[in-house]
User: Fold this.
Amino acid sequence: MKFKTIRNVTDSQRELVYKDRQLVQILTAGRHSFFDWKQSLTFHSFDVNDIYLSDPDTLRWYARSKLLQQHVHFWQLQPDQLGLLYLDGMLRGVVAPGEQVYIWKDVGKVELKTIDFEQQLQLDNGLLREINRVGANQSKRLIRSEASVAVKPVTEFTVASWHVGLLYQDGEFVRQLAPGRYGFWQFNHEYEVRQFDLRATMLDISGQEILSKDRVSLRINLSATVKTIDVTLLAASVDQPHEYIYKLLQLALREAVGTKTLDELLLDKLYVNETVRDIVRESLTAIGIELVGVGVKDIILPGEMKAILNQVVEAQKAAEANVIKRREETAATRSLHNTAKVMDNNPILLRLKELEALEKVAEKIDSLTVHNGLDGLMKGLVTMQPAQIAEAQKQGKNHV
Assistant:
């Protein structure tokens, strides 16, 4: 029939029927027929699976339509409130502050939990895990009228082990954060976390070309170990801590080396370490840094200076060796002289010395034939030179 209108509504649909632009009926699932003699009916179909009712024309009727109120939930949030929307006990999204929320009642059990985020900016760990588990921390899951604004409801930070985080809200320092994971509602606020390592850190000041007091060009490598002891003071004092510490140590090293000659530096190897430590320690403490240790790793001389220094060291060692040699020769001569004086006044001791010499000679001879008694043997040994004895042994003679 020309004036009869048939509307088939599925389970997941709802249709609003308007007559002369006035809401007159809401169609649920089923087959519906209408006689529209004057062609005054219009129909607006909605998919309830979308959950949210956001049509501006429809919302305009909500306040004065008891019919619409039977099918739609409504909430009005304050500017300092946000909402957690649950459907059948599961989190479905976050409602932005100050928003109006319209949700079909037929989608299931709907609940909206409100939070005064200005009083509770940090999320507890349980809620943070729940938001991440269901994917609610996404701009597309944020329920707000300004759909063009893409913003995540929660900003997250993770402070690593052995670190301390400094939390800044809208550029103002708030508090320190221990290692762990943190989430903050970022509506109307901006957050920043700066992390600082509390462990000792080693810095290398390498390849420093410095002139000593006697104008010798030296290449010096310095190593220092530092540790952060007051992160709040450090953050408030220095923008780039490592660069500041590096420059401070570099200048202290140049001051220490430039006031001493090469010989003085080589003579007192701890001078540079102690001087640099004394210069920078107070300045580092003032910004919250402890100087654990500092030391020179290398002092590299120019090629010509290295050769000259090697010659000097070689000459010094040669002179020392010559002095030792002369001292030992003098001691040996003095010992022989003392021995001779003792034997000259003691015939028995002289005889023992002769027998000792005879024993040493006998060790090198296989057989010994004695003529004219022991006195003849001793005479022969006295007159025979050591070279003759050695030659006799070389020729294979076995007697003297």
Remarks:
- The chain has a mean pLDDT of 80.
- The CA atoms of residues 131 and 137 lie 6 Å apart.
- Residues 201-301 form a domain with the Tetrahydropterin Synthase; Chain A fold (CATH 3.30.479.30).
